[in-house]
Amino acid sequence: MNKLKKIGLTALGTSLVASSAIAADASLTGNTGYTWSSEEVGTSTTDGIGYEADFNMSVSGEMDNGWTATGSLLLTESATLSSSWTSLTMGSLGTVIVGNGYGGVGQAFDDVTPKAYEENHDGMKTSTAIDNVGANMGNGSLMYFGPTVDLGGFGVQVMAGYAPEASNTAVGDGGVSGQSNLWSSGQELGLKVSGMGITAGAYANELTKDSADSETDGDAMTSTWHVSYNAGPVSVGYQTGGSDTGVTGAAELATAAKAYTTATGNFEFEKISIAANVSDNMSISWGELTETYDSQGTSVSGGVGQADVEMKSTSIQFAYSMGSMKISGYMTDTDNPGWDSNAKSDEVTELAVGFSF
Fold this sequence. Notes:
This protein is 5% helix and 52% strand. The chain is mostly beta strands and 357 residues long.
């Protein structure tokens, strides 16, 4: 008899739990395709044929109060996890997101001028300052995206993020973040404004120096602002910004390649681009990105202050869509790649055929 009671109570408990679950909707979307790329460095040319197979799985459910909880996973052709995140959309209160590989609030300000296909740095084969906007906040941070509110005919949205440990490492369920050997916490703030054909925004990020670290001489800071104007089929845009990496030490040689995350001095960037819809299916664009390494007057041991180095890339792009099929490509030419005044120019050409489902 006791066994029958136990079975009955267990079944009742299971029924109660099941009835309280959120009714969820699951979806599977993805992209597949083929690419051909050619890279010319000086007189040396290397070609490659690649492929794309990305799969995005998500599940979402709406609660009784109208809030929506969502979980998403993105897998790439190498069978590795590209990004995963969970979000809680609270109606007019905005959305809270925590994830891995999401890109933080900075992803909304990473090279956002008009383009037909890819960002300039996709074809530069080197890390860039504009690509590292808010990079240390991409994992292990709590992000908030406010609702878009109307102010005088313009839509305004505020975004913010906080990382208790700015190590850019993902934190799984119930885990703690991996320690950064440079930074303790990090915070970021962004603002987007749009209306009357204008899109503008500003972003700032600060990483707090770890008190036990000797590789940095202060907090690291990144900031950028952008504005674009859309006039019918033509869009023009401008973006500028810079960063103080906070890394201490002697200046980098002007004739040596530099790594953004470890180089001393500051970085500045400026981007201008124009894109046009030639037809309903065809678009083209031109963009020029200039990034300057500023040695800040520091010198190599026993030497004189090093000269600034300007890395410049120009990208011409196109995209043609036919339903779920898209043909696109770019030609990007970079001078002084890696902020190295002795480096040979690097030209990358890519053609891609993609399918979305």
